[in-house]
Amino acid sequence: MSKKKVIVTSGDPAGCGPIISLKAINAYQSGNVEFFLVGDEKIFRELPQYRRLRKKITLVDVNTSGIEKLQKGFPSKLSGKAALNYLYKALELIKRQNIKHLVTAPLSKEAVQLNLAGFSGHTEFLAENLGVKNVVMMMVSKKIRTVLFTRHILLRQVFSALKKEDILNTLLLVDKSLRKQFRIKKPGIAFASLNPHAGVDTFLENEEKKILKVISEFKTKVYGPYPCDTLFTPKNLKKYDCVICAYHDQAMIPFKLLSMQEGVNVSLGLPIVRTSPAHGVAYDVIRSGKLPFYSSMLEAIRLGVKLSP
After folding, report:
1. Is residue 173 part of a domain?
2. Judging by DSSP bridges, how do beta strands 58-61 and 33-39 pair with one another?
3. In sequence order, what are the beta bridge partners of 41?
4. CA 149 centroid distance within chain
5. In this structure, is residue 224 part of a structural domain?
6. Would you say 192 and 223 are in contact if contact means Cβ atoms under 8 Å apart?
7. Could you report the per-residue pLDDT of 134-160, keeping only the tens digit for each?
8. Beta strand 4-9 pairing with 33-39
9. Do the beta carbons of residue 160 and residue 256 sit within 8 Å?
10. Is there a single domain that holds both residue 49 and residue 145?
11. Of 264, 256, 188, 185, nearest to 226 (Cα)?
12. How far apart are CA 169 and CA 58, in angstroms?
């Protein structure tokens, strides 16, 4: 039986990415995976985990010019350039070798933006470079699955972003993924309200009416829109396989409270499986000299290997 090929991009080299990438790969017990680790060998050489892993992985050394001068624990144009080039190299491997699984360690959007104006995150970057228009960001753990209907936009822009076509496309992708990738025969999907108390037919505005109209016409049953202040209680979470939230923090606050150290970000709609840990670059941890936890990165590898495109 041939091994499944998995690309791991090591994220911002000034952050936690190189460490958690090596630790997670080392902790992954199954022998059914061939890892392609994309990064800078000069960065990895500084870490003891690399010496133990060197012969067990295929290192793709980007050899970023000047990387040895990098200041750890701080964003910079150099760290952003390196992280961006790791992604470009991963895309090259995906296309050349037809690899279907990508795990991305955290990068700094601000650092990457110093090299690529308008960069808003892995999800949007990969969608653009893989020729996909409709992508969805799903956060996954054993306790909760939640989807961000809108991602990295200003809160005041969320109201106008609630468009019928986009709501429908999100529902289609989520329903398809839960059935095909997570093998749930009859997915239970709930939609969170945007306004307090799910303001349908009240003094509140029309956002919930927009959501209600689309989900009432959807091919399978979708529940809601429900108020967020009660939707994320343990009792209610057991009722649904996934909760769709209108904006970033509406989803991420409950998700991180419940699953910070084992949560996984999954990009739905790409022609590949892409997963990542549910946290950022952890510059503060690196500056402190403490070791970052790698459990979320390990879960990203485990889930990524398990899912099919």
Report:
1. yes
2. parallel
3. none
4. 14
5. yes
6. no
7. 999 999 999 999 999 998 889 899 999
8. parallel
9. no
10. no
11. 188
12. 37
